[in-house]
Amino acid sequence: MTRLLFAGTIFTSAFLLFLVQPLVSKQILPWFGGSAAVWATCMVFFQVVLLAGYAYADLTTRHLGPRRQVGLHIVLLLASALLLPIVADPGLKPAGGDDPALRILLLLILTMGLPYFLLSTTGPLVQAWLTRSVVDARVYRFYALSNFASLLALVAYPFLIEPRATLLSQAMAWSVLYGMFIVLCALSGLMFARHASLRPLDPLHPSHPSHPRHHSMAGDTPAPPEAAAVHPPTLGDHATWLALSAMGSWMLLAVTNHITQNIAAVPFLWLLPLTIYLLSFILCFESDRWYRRKLFLLPVAAALALCAYGLQDGVLGFNIRTAIPLYATGLFFMCMFLHGELAMLRPSPRYLTRFYLMLSLGGALGGIAVGLLAPRLLPGYYELGIGLAIVALLAGWLFRGRLPLMIGALLLALLCGSFFYKQVAAGRKDAHTLMRSFYGSLRIADTHHVNAIDNVRGLYHGAIRHGEQFLDPARRREPTSYYGRETGIGLAINNARRDMRKIGLIGLGSGTLAAYGRVGDVYRFYEINPQVIALAQSEFSFLKDSPARIETVLGDARLTLEKEAPQGFDVLAVDAFSGDAIPVHLLTREAMDVYLRHMRPDGIIAFHVTNRFLSLAPVVQQIAAARGLNALLIHDDGMRTTRHKTDWVLVARDAHTLAAEAFRKGSTSIPVIPGLRPWTDDFNNLFDVLK
Predict the structure, then answer these.
(1) Which segments within 180-232 are labelled E, that is strand?
(2) Tell me, what DSSP letter sits at residue 159?
(3) 309 vs 233, 318, 358, 388, 421, CA distance in Å?
(4) Cβ neighbours for 163, distance < 8 A, ≥ 6 positions apart
(5) Given this chain, do its domains 232-428 and 482-689 carry the same CATH topology?
(6) Rounded to an integer, what distance in angstroms lies between the CA atom of residue 411 and that of residue 515?
(7) pLDDT, tens digit, for every residue of 354-364?
């Protein structure tokens, strides 16, 4: 019975610990423009709180007797129940000018800080209780149970939970399970207080959480060889532990950023790297048989070289069919190397607590470097290229006693560095402005043609162009790229029936659509990224040249529109993309309701659905049909005007609004995707619309 109680506590805590991460992240994702950086910031929070949880478990087991340990923990458990259910408070939505990373951290602390902290303590704490309550506890079986529960949560969420339950239902169910965990954990503590010996636990005893049989968040650790007996770790040992752990965390977030910035900010793509990272920890710390250096050196070297090459190769490193398999496989081999070497370097039992503290600290530092510092210090997504070179250099440090391996690692670092240099050089080619923020990287570049009148200045968000303008003063008011006069949005604006039009635009870009403005018109732009507004005003002249009255509103468009009084738009253009990562919350049935409240009866909502990877026109048609609206797909091959192929779906209440000859001439049929349901805030699946 005692074993079953502890097993239930450990399983429940591990399952809830890894289930809450995508659950809460998805709750707040729409509040920050659907940016993939939301997940990176959340991961920083998770890693830092895990470090705090491990430190708490270590300190209480070392310095408090059984009754005081249990009393303190039960008080904290009861206090954490006051934060249930874990539903983010809408009153904490960003106002528009906030630092999004700091706002996310505040949201997470207030929504789930104490429950997550207590879940993170459960592994080392309850397992220490178990070994002092049960003779021959065989803790490794409970570690295996914990690891299984963690992976089960990561796999279950995108495939079983997310498609079948609303976010509110998910949060309520999680909160009920957390209530069960409080009861189980409290009973486990009382059982421990009743049966445990009152003498302090010897750190060399197999039951102590610092003994090699115990783990932090990684899995079971086999005992180090006796030859490692009791020599104290040097400063170099501490630095190596810290570096290996930090680079594992660094590569986790850097790979996650890379595969989500140009595909989609969806929980599956967040959880895939995290699952790989956790699996490598489990394998390397469960047994020495999983990581054999000789077997892994060549695959790791190949992974580093191919991943570095892919960063400056558009086919290998940026195509959905090749990028995800390449970087997922590469991450696995890199994490196996980093965590395998960590497991080989574990010290004697006397110093295991220090080892795990350095491991946890390294994980937190790697997360902070990529999740918080990189967007503020690097002008582009350079952390992955930098990380690949550092991993190779770290291998050179590890192999410093074996000259051939050290030279090979240093040459590999040089190769990764050269590919990184080419990546940076390609990004800077013809560019005179590079900047980055929480919302992504921005680049201003001029493209020169044989005929000077065709020279253009473009705004690029990641690898995607977000507007361009002719440099020739005589042509600078021409609408370009995806916004030419034959495109869906060009036709919608030019065919609006009022003389004095009011146009709403979600997504500013270079401000190209202001070129359609006339005297008396109002063009109201909604833009979440303040850097985009600054660049549109300083590097392009569409806004200042337009005869219309130009209004810019900083903040997430949907949140802003929800708060505003009806605007009475004749046309509303929904054109907010971050690379090719689609802000799903702008393409749901609830979002359509928000848009309709701001439209005139004969107004048109125009969705920009040009996309390399996703077929979004059927999604718009479905949410339009769900509200009894009419939808028309306008395809423009751009051959007569902008030379850009574009797709816009126009949505209107009245079919007669879309019956103009200009619309019919450019219209094409919307493809049918069998089984596709109207997207809602709770139910949306990008896998259904992959091209």
Answers:
(1) none
(2) I
(3) 37, 11, 32, 11, 11
(4) 683, 685
(5) no
(6) 52
(7) 777 788 899 99
